[in-house]
Specification:
Oligomer: homodimer
Number of domains of chain A: 2
Largest interface: A-B, 53 and 53 residues
CATH superfamily of the largest domain in chain A: Response regulator
Organism (chains A, B): Paenibacillus glucanolyticus
Number of helices of chain A: 13
GO molecular function, one term (chains A, B): transcription cis-regulatory region binding
Structural class of chain A: alpha/beta
Distance between the termini of chain A: 83 Å
Strand content of chain A: 5-15%
CATH architecture of the largest domain in chain A: 3-Layer(aba) Sandwich
Pfam families (chains A, B): LacI, Peripla_BP_1
Number of strands of chain A: 12
Order of helices and strands of chain A: HHHHEHHEHEHEEHEHEHEHEEHEE
CATH class of the largest domain in chain A: Alpha Beta
Protein name (chains A, B): LacI family transcriptional regulator
Keywords (chains A, B): DNA-binding, Transcription, Transcription regulation
Shape of chain A: elongated
Largest sheet of chain A: 6 strands, parallel
CATH topology of the largest domain in chain A: Rossmann fold
Chain lengths: 344, 344
DNA sequence: CAAAAAAACGCAAACGGTTCCACTGGAGGT
DNA sequence: ACCTCCAGTGGAACCGTTTGCGTTTTTTTG
């Protein structure tokens, strides 16, 4: 069928071993033989069978990325595209392939990742999200498989991971609003079991506390990473007797919903309500008004994650050296928070 | 190291062949043996080695999707995320894995796809874009590898492909604008070597012709699938002595740029200029004003593509039955084109 | 110039499965 | 009681590579 190493060997009058050694340019192959074999390979259209190779070498030169539980919801987010782009670019650059997998629920995720790792189809995994108590992490950890987490785990603080300092990022964002004179600052959060929601909430609270401002329960709502969440949050906030004048929002996508809600209720951004959110996906600058956002370097997160993982799996002694890579963030101030509250 | 079929066999007191047969539940294995072997597999934590399996079965149960040339630009688009989501979902559902690959340029794409297919790492490929003269298509076609095209090829009309009827879609969109009373309708196109640009332009032209309207060269601009393109198009259009009153725009992302340009120049949408674009990515409904868009069922495109490909590779006699799947489109009319031109 | 060292290459055993073919034992047919 | 047939299983070759070790050839060296 397809031309194998043996065919090449026969044609070149050498042994298969020699051909193999030419392939991996082994030091003890003569210039001459190497040249000749390569020529014949070219001529016969030889391509190494990757499966056979990984069978014996016990390494697949590929990694997988596990999409979070409700891929249907979250996948919509530009966030993941950016991340994947970073991962794929880096991986391909290092000669690795990337395999994408998703599961309808956490159990299916575990099954998928088990099939992939246990079946030796991939060398390692990248997890795009860290839930509070993640079965996938448990699995990977207990089987001692190489993996890197984009985010962080509370249960295992010492994992190989790449993350944003979300507490600090939220702190900075909140402080920015405070510096504009706001005293009543609300927070629109994501799913409470996501570490990222918790961290950002924490930074928000810390900034308020440091400024001597009160943090009111009714100024905090939880939701999903969906536009609807922002929209619903608005009808709630705006019916309050005492409304927040500024909002920290857990994700840009939610901000879009907030924007729409505010618009429909007749409020102006930033005059009536100033807002700032996280991730700085493209499009934040295109909304009206353009959204202030904390750029967390998504592409970079993916790129770094891939790099860290591949470095680990390449390491022969397979010791996963735990390390937390923190990707720097920075505030992108745009119109949605370019308004200082008049002193009243 | 890891528990193999032989370990299980030994422990169960049967031969490896039998274990293998249990795995693929071969008809001629007794209930009893099957039960027992399965029990032992469970107990020992056996997982089949996928590489070994594909080495002999010559099938990998995985496909790859090739990201278009400048992944860095286009990847940004929500379009691809939706598509990939559809592909991955369907593939996983059919027990297939999906491998993502990108290349810096067309040659690298060919190399990647060659490595993957020739190296027997994947069974088939999905191409996300059809350029005018695509080397990847040439490669796949001439090597007789199974693949499906999302889009269409002019060179080979008879490929397995899934597509939108872009001519008709553009026709419908344009006709919609005409029905609102517009006579001066412009077109913002994408890269001219992309079939999709050409088709949409064709439909646009056809609708104009059918309505007896003129199609002026200066009302057509070409660009990229980028916001900037839309932005630039606006400064051009709006400096024309005779400006179009409505625009058909090749992609939603470009519309966002158009919107910004128009906003900065002080024009109102839809009163001064009505616009409609293609793809209906989420966020079209969130812009101000919400964008009219032709929904082309992106997720469905991906889902169908994956289905078609897997069906093909599963077919033993590997004959790729050419077929064009057309995914239906539909107009989503929103505020950006909800304005009838006053009779003047 | 012989011996030792180095260089270049071949042999064969893996890697973990699948599958064709052969073998066994019991059921059914005559 | 003998033959046939078939369900159930085992044996062994093979898929296409890699690699440790041994063998041959060449070069170096005393």
């Amino acid at each position: 069928m397809s031309v194998t190493i043996k065919d090449v060997a026969k044609r070149a009058g050498v042994s298969p071993s020699t051909v193999s050694r030419v392939l991996s340019n082994h030091p003890r192959i003569s210039r001459e033989t190497s040249r000749k074999v390569k020529e014949i390979m070219e001529e016969m259209g030889y391509h190494p069978n990757i499966m056979a190779k990984s069978l014996v070498s016990k390494t697949t030169e590929s990694i997988c990325v596990i999409l979070p539980k409700p891929a249907e919801e979250l996948f919509l987010n530009l966030f993941f595209m950016e991340l994947i782009r970073g991962i794929v670019t880096q991986a391909n650059r290092s000669g690795y392939d990337v395999l994408i997998s998703s599961g309808g629920n956490e159990k299916e995720e575990v099954e998928a990742v088990s099939r992939l790792l246990n079946g030796r189809r991939v060398d390692g995994a990248i997890l795009l999200y860290s839930r509070q108590d993640d079965q996938v992490v448990d699995f990977l950890k207990s089987n001692n498989y190489p993996f890197v987490l984009v985010g962080r785990s509370e249960k295992y603080p010492d994992l190989l991971s790449v993350d944003t300092d979300n507490v600090q990022a939220a702190y900075d964002a909140t402080k920015h609003l405070i510096s504009l004179g706001h005293k009543r600052i609300g927070f629109v959060s994501g799913p409470p079991n996501l570490i990222v929601s918790q961290d950002r909430m924490k930074g928000y609270g810390k900034a308020l506390a440091d400024a001597g401002l009160e943090m009111r329960k009714e100024w905090i709502v939880e939701g999903e990473f969906l536009q609807e969440s922002g929209y619903r949050a608005m009808s709630f906030f705006m019916n309050l007797p005492e409304r927040p004048t500024a909002l920290v929002i857990v994700d840009d996508i939610v901000s879009f919903g907030v924007l729409r809600g505010l618009h429909e209720l007749g409020y102006k951004v930033p005059e009536d309500v100033s807002i700032i959110s996280f991730n700085n996906i493209s499009l934040t600058e295109l909304s009206t008004p353009p959204l202030s956002s904390v750029d967390i370097g998504i592409y970079n997160l993916g790129y770094t994650a891939s790099q860290a993982l591949i470095q680990t799996v390449r390491n022969d002694d397979k010791t996963v050296l735990p390390h937390r890579y923190i990707i720097p963030h920075r505030l992108m101030i745009r119109e949605s928070s370019m308004y200082s509250l008049p002193k009243s």
